[in-house]
Amino acid sequence: MYEYIKGTVEHTGPEFVVIDNNGIGYQILTPNPFIFSSKKGVETIIYTYQHVREDIIALYGFETIEEKLMFRKLLSVSGIGPKGALAILAFGEPGQVIRAIENEDEKFLTKFPGVGKKTARQMILDLKGKLHDVVPNVSFDLFSEELDVPAANNPRNEDELDEALLALAALGYSERELKKVGPKLEGKDWTTDQYIKQALQLLLK
């Protein structure tokens, strides 16, 4: 119903971002809401997908049209719902997940919350060879480049780390998994978004 919403970023939380459009605040669930933190009060475009069930109507939003297309592809796989699709997309560029599917890397795919061997195999069966329209010309060399996390000038690093861990918990990662990666992230001077990206890199190794 809604292709995108253009408005100002008013609030970000562990699961959603609030976009103000002509005095109406839209709560939009996103893979990583904190990518919008630096845009607070700034007009931005978020590509949206409206999900309707008997018990819920929700808006899901994405920074790029490619992420939105990948979300819809993931929803077409039996066993993957909106929350699972968000957790997969939170990892980063859609091309990284596409490479795992094309390489039939079940071990990598099962590291996402809620994705077991059966669902990973279903993802490969349903999506292999069908994702070039999402990210054309993607290389199939999985993790050919390591994630680059630049330094950030942020004195509130403990608060940022706490926000990142809350966001990862909202995506479905267990307390045990978060306790394992938490100590490896302490003492860094990163933004919440950077903590999330680095934590996901560690969780999926």
TrEMBL record:
The keyword Hydrolase applies. Residues 72-91, 107-126 form the Helix-hairpin-helix DNA-binding motif class domain. Residues 152-205 are annotated as: Domain III. InterPro entries: DNA_helicase_Holl-junc_RuvA_I, Hlx-hairpin-Hlx_DNA-bd_motif, NA-bd_OB-fold, RuvA, RuvA_2-like, RuvA_C, RuvA_C_sf. Pfam families: HHH_5, RuvA_C, RuvA_N. Its main location: cytoplasm. GO terms for molecular function: ATP binding; four-way junction DNA binding; four-way junction helicase activity; hydrolase activity. Transmembrane segments: none annotated. GO terms for biological process: DNA recombination; DNA repair. One of its GO terms (cellular component) is Holliday junction resolvase complex. Belongs to the RuvA family. NCBIfam families: ruvA. The RuvA-RuvB-RuvC complex processes Holliday junction (HJ) DNA during genetic recombination and DNA repair, while the RuvA-RuvB complex plays an important role in the rescue of blocked DNA replication forks via replication fork reversal (RFR). RuvA specifically binds to HJ cruciform DNA, conferring on it an open structure. The RuvB hexamer acts as an ATP-dependent pump, pulling dsDNA into and through the RuvAB complex. HJ branch migration allows RuvC to scan DNA until it finds its consensus sequence, where it cleaves and resolves the cruciform DNA. Has three domains with a flexible linker between the domains II and III and assumes an 'L' shape. Domain III is highly mobile and contacts RuvB. Homotetramer. Forms an RuvA(8)-RuvB(12)-Holliday junction (HJ) complex. HJ DNA is sandwiched between 2 RuvA tetramers; dsDNA enters through RuvA and exits via RuvB. An RuvB hexamer assembles on each DNA strand where it exits the tetramer. Each RuvB hexamer is contacted by two RuvA subunits (via domain III) on 2 adjacent RuvB subunits; this complex drives branch migration. In the full resolvosome a probable DNA-RuvA(4)-RuvB(12)-RuvC(2) complex forms which resolves the HJ. This is Holliday junction branch migration complex subunit RuvA. It comes from Lederbergia citrea. The gene is ruvA.
